[in-house]
Amino acid sequence: MRRYQSLMRKITALLILLTACKADHSSESGIPPITQPEEWWTYEGVVRSDSGNDIMIELSLLQGAVGVPSLFRTREEFVSFDDKLMLSGRGEYTVRLGASDVGNIVEIRSKKTRVYAVEGPGLTNDKSEYSKKLFELARISELIFKTGEFGDLVLVDRNHTPLASDDRYTLKRRSRLYDVEGFITLGPDTSGFYEVNSHRTWNVSRSGAYGEANMRYHALADEHHQGVYLKGVAFVVRTRDRHGNEVESMVIKRITSMKSHEQLME
User: Fold this and answer.
1) Is residue 91 included in any domain, yes or no?
2) Tell me, what DSSP letter sits at residue 99?
3) pLDDT at position 10 over 90
4) What CATH number is given to the structural domain containing 208?
């Protein structure tokens, strides 16, 4: 009986060893281990270039630990008269603990960008003096933010003082981009967008392509509070309304089409 039990223990040990060897072999054969998916958070808004010009920016941060460098990537747009310069950047950023009344500090140092597209009559030669001047106006060597409410990023200087007293240079953490179609109504005090697919009415944030939408709206609307058809791309941000209540607002990122009621009937 003892010999039988001893033999069974040896067989069991051998099976465990063979199983372990098989698992190691399958791992070496290229089967990837189970890992957590990368999590990128994306923010949009306006920042200031080294020369003081406003730059539209889409900033994505790969989430990491405080004090440990992680990755960022950007897409930027700078408009000067009739010319538009589009740039992209990537590199490393670091999150540092700030004072209790400041919030965490997000630092992007030694930022480098490249031009991936230009639009406009003045950019016929990328090596021209005008082009070099335009690129210099859009250059951003570093960005420093403090974290705000809802995880927003507030642009600050090296002393961690905000560059503006309002939210002009605050990047909003956004949702995923999605297609929208519906009717927009814009006025001095109120704004709204009725989305035909979800049958939901959204508050419209005064950022993104709001300026373009507002200009085209007043050119198409025949009377106050009239809905104008709009199709485009949007995202959602968390913010507060004029009464201080937490709300979700739609930001129109890009306009595909805007039409009056008469144009829709044609």
Assistant:
1) yes
2) -
3) no
4) 2.40.50.540
Cα gap 34→30, rounded to integer Å: 12
The answer to whether residues 184 and 95 belong to one domain is no
Q: Kindly give the residue spans of alpha helices, DSSP state H, lying in the chain.
A: 2-28, 129-137, 210-220, 261-265
E strands, the chain, in order: 40-48, 54-62, 70-80, 83-96, 105-108, 113-119, 143-147, 153-155, 170-173, 178-186, 191-195, 200-204, 228-240, 246-259
Domain of residue 194: give its range: 178-265
User: Could you tell me the two tokens for 91?
Assistant: 């590199």
Residue 242 confidence (pLDDT) = 77
- Return d(Cα 219, Cα 184) in angstroms, integer: 13
- Together in a domain, 186 and 140: no
65 and 137: one domain? yes
8 Å CB contact between 160 and 146: yes
Could you give phi then psi for residue 40, rounded to 5 degrees?
A: -105, 135
Region of residue 91 (left: phi > 0; alpha: psi -120 to 50; beta: else): left
Judge whether 168 lies within some domain.
yes
**6 is a domain residue:** no
Instruction: Round to whole Å and give the CA distance between 215 and 25.
Output: 65
Q: Is residue 22 a part of any domain in this protein?
A: no
Q: What average pLDDT does this structure show over 77-86?
A: 83
User: Distance between CA atoms of 128 and 139, rounded to whole angstroms?
Assistant: 17
Q: Which amino acid is at 220?
A: L
Q: For 155-203, write each residue's pLDDT tens digit.
A: 999 998 999 988 889 999 999 999 999 999 998 777 899 999 889 999 9
Using only C-alpha atoms, the chain has a radius of gyration, in whole angstroms, of 27
- How many domains, the chain? 2
Q: What is the DSSP letter of 205?
A: P
